[in-house]
Design brief:
mainly beta; about 5% helix; 32 strands; Immunoglobulin-like; 7-stranded mixed sheet; about 40% strand
């Protein structure tokens, strides 16, 4: 496992005991039985699921129903399906087009994507394209829902740099459970500049959608709000602790933490490094060679792993150094098996991109994130002391302005993170210090551990309207940690 010293250097471990809302803490040893047993909402015994017993499934790329010179048109249906996760059992999932996760959509910068989303579930849903600059009527706001049996058309202009986005449910008071049960899918924007770099592509460009869940002995997903201690089954692309057979060459992995509340600190079991090339908003300016990747819920890391460093027959486990939970469960994510040699003409250039020049801020705002962590039965979560009210606009912002947002987590134990709709931002400071290389690019989600303050530089120059900002730990958002900004 990753040493505690290196984890602390990565800046994502906190001290103290596991507390409310899933404090980012070191994983417990396999002998810590109390963490492996259900402690809240006891509903059946936990399922026994073998590790590294099933292959990784790569989500298929969805083909457009129709394509013109300016627009690709898609049809997507949200529906329930049965899928085997616990051996011999069928688990019910909520899906896009019957897949867990849904199919990947690949878009081109400057070419519109239009998706007709049909809801065949029995609850309202709202589809949010996380990280996208979109008109307000296609943002998928919490109250802009699709009723059961109805459809809605979403239009995505894709007027932003190449990046790895994702879409998921955002219906208020439903989003936490709906995403937990499967409603997430990867959305990739490509452009000519990135394509010209020679990065690994095609079959060697693979999304890894990481989730955790609680499965009972009958194979059913058990949902309890903020059930961070019991969600100890890790899935990647819908499969539990899968193995992935790779060639001895470079691969690009687009890693998404799509969990509800779990923070991840990822590393390879042999201590080897990976090359981070991008984050939420696309490519970094320069590659970041690192032994660890820190991801809070909703964050993405775009990395290259060069398996030519390892002889055929090597097995490498992708590990997680953060709890809560026992190391023999939440401490493992998946396994890479090097099974063959292969030609490789891909490269990772020393210069990847040029980020937009930061604009000068004219406004400074402060946001306090806080949730009840005193053990009450019905805890709530707040931004600046208020829970979400869809009828209230909390911040009014002139179009075209640039602002500094200081976001503070005033809890003593609970971690949070912070996501803005519509915009990508720059991290200026974390606790008064310049951000590390992993946060040097454009971001739409940033982690804010207990007691931390981050400063963000945000420019609002795309669309007008009312958009949310919130903690992207889905359970916290559903508990009220969300506000609204109006760009006018």
């Amino acid at each position: 496992m990753l040493s505690r010293r290196n984890a602390l250097k990565a800046g994502v471990l906190t001290t103290g005991v596991v507390g409310a809302a899933g404090l980012a803490s070191p994983v417990l040893g396999s002998g810590a039985a109390s963490a492996a047993e259900p402690v809240a909402g006891a509903i059946g015994a936990p399922a026994v699921i073998p590790q590294f017993a099933v292959p990784l499934t790569v989500p298929p790329v969805l083909s457009p129903l129709l394509s013109s010179g300016t627009t690709d048109y898609y049809l997507v249906t949200m529906k329930k399906v049965l899928k085997e996760v616990v051996p011999g059992k069928q688990t019910e999932f909520y899906t896009y087009n019957g897949l867990v996760p849904g199919p990947t959509i690949k878009a081109r910068r400057g070419k519109r994507v239009v998706i007709r989303q049909t809801n065949q579930l029995d609850m309202p849903v709202s589809v949010h394209l996380h990280g996208a600059e979109v008109p307000v009527d296609s943002d998928g706001a919490p109250m802009n829902t699709i009723a059961p049996g109805a459809s809605k058309v979403y239009t995505y202009p894709n007027n932003q740099r190449a990046s790895t986005l994702w879409f998921h449910d955002h219906a208020h008071h439903h989003e936490s459970e709906n995403v937990y049960r499967g409603l997430s899918s990867v959305y990739v924007i490509n452009d000519d500049a990135e394509q010209a770099l020679g990065l690994p592509g095609g079959a060697y460009d693979v999304p890894l959608v990481i989730r955790d869940g609680r499965y009972d002995e009958n194979g059913q997903l058990v949902y309890v709000m903020d059930d961070f201690l019991n969600r100890t089954t890790i899935t990647v692309n819908g499969s539990p602790w899968p193995y992935y057979q790779v060639a001895a060459r470079k691969y690009r992995f687009r890693i998404l933490n799509s969990t509800n509340v779990r923070f991840l600190l990822l590393s390879l079991s042999n201590g080897g490094t990976v090359t981070q090339i991008g984050t939420d908003g696309g490519l970094l300016e320069r590659p970041n060679e690192t032994p660890v990747l820190a991801l809070s819920p909703g964050e993405r890391a775009d990395v290259v792993i060069d398996f030519s460093r390892y002889p055929v027959g090597t097995q490498l486990v992708l590990q997680n150094a953060l709890g809560p939970g026992p190391a023999d469960q939440v401490g493992k994510i998946m396994r890479f098996d090097v099974v063959r040699t292969a030609a490789d003409n891909s490269t990772v250039p020393a210069r990847l991109s040029t980020l937009p020049a930061p604009q000068t801020a004219t406004v400074n705002r402060s946001f306090e994130l806080r949730m009840d962590e005193d053990g009450r039965l019905d805890p709530q979560a707040y931004i600046n002391g208020q829970t979400y009210d869809p009828a209230r606009v909390d911040v009014r912002i002139p179009w075209g302005s640039t602002e500094v947002w200081s976001v503070t987590n005033s809890n003593t134990r609970a971690p949070h993170n912070f996501h803005l709709h519509l915009v990508q931002f720059r991290v200026l400071e974390r606790n008064g210090q310049a951000p590390g290389p992993a946060e040097a690019g454009l971001k739409d989600t940033v982690q804010v551990l207990a007691g931390e303050t981050v400063k963000l530089l945000v420019t609002f120059n795309s669309y007008r309207g009312v958009y949310p900002y919130h903690c992207h730990m889905f359970d916290h958002g559903a508990m009220g940690m969300m506000g609204q900004m109006e760009i006018y």
